[in-house]
Amino acid sequence: GVQINSVPSFINKEVFTFGKNGLPFVDAIKLWFFTHSLSNDAITLQNLSYPVSQDQLDNTIPRLFTDKVLYQDAQTIAVVNASGVSGAGGRVAKFLTNIGANVIIVNTADNLQDTSTIEYTGDNSYTVKKMEKIMKVIAKQSNNKIAVANIMITLGKDKAGEFN
Question: What DSSP element (H or E) covers 58?
Answer without folding.
Answer: helix 54-65
